[in-house]
Amino acid sequence: MNRLPTVIVPIHNALEALDACLAALDRTLPAGSEVLLADDASSDPRINPMARSWCYRSPLKARYVRRELNMGFPANCNAAFAETGDDDVVLLNSDTIPTAGWLQQLARCAASDERIATITPWSNNAEICSFPRFCEPNPAPGHPDAIAEAAAALPPQYPELPTAVGFCMFVRRAALRQLGGFDAATFGLGYGEENDFCLRAAAMGWRNVLCDAAYVVHQGGASFGPLDIAPNGDNLARLLARWPDYNERVARFIMADPLRPLRARLQEKMEELARSGPQRDLFG
Prior knowledge:
The chain is of the alpha/beta class. The chain has helices spanning 15-28, 47-57, 73-82, 102-111, 144-152, 173-179, 184-187, 193-203, 234-242, 246-256, 260-276, and strands at 6-11, 34-39, 61-66, 89-92, 96-98, 116-122, 168-171, 207-218. Helices cover 40% and strands 17% of the residues. It starts with 5 loop residues before the first strand and ends in an 8-residue tail after the last helix. GO terms for molecular function: glycosyltransferase activity. It holds the Pfam family Glycos_transf_2.
């Protein structure tokens, strides 16, 4: 396999969630994997020393960059894109817990088709990519690596999505070069920028897909909660002004639910693996 993507972790406060995410990166990534911590001027003074200490201790090739002023999520990501050279990247929210093999699975998915611009894995809390219940914030599972093991044991399908889900989002560098990153001028502090990017990508012939061989836990809302930024507010209006059929596209996808058979086979594989090994409640 070619070089793994660089993992970008955008940071704004949320110390406890970040600590858990970084520990999971140490546990799940091969030594020497590249990680950029992009701190958007966190107000919590504990973030800087904790992040720097982790970079020093980690077996990963990790860097920490702190913005002088809060830029907002889209602009922080755009700066991080520029700071990662020519690499493909994965934007990984700080309130996630990656599982074994997750980055390798995303890289395999990307290698399957050079027209893939974005990739999203399964998660407990990922809207259209949620498992086991579709479009619901499922509780974090007790044994997430068991779900990842089951997902990786199945032949991947890499089905089309109307949009990536930003909690964990592979982005191909060639797509970034063509499309120009996120629209920070329009989407400000954040929400909607990844949807806009994916719609622009699709309009240019790129694909947005699910990596049904990977699973990442998502807590949800840890970074934006303290800022009291409500999703689906002004930024949704801006998104719809540019893409008037966005809601219809997503609604049609939800009504058709093309991922239903993939969720069913993943559930069946989990039950099969549970029967063949120690009995455990995979969602407890």
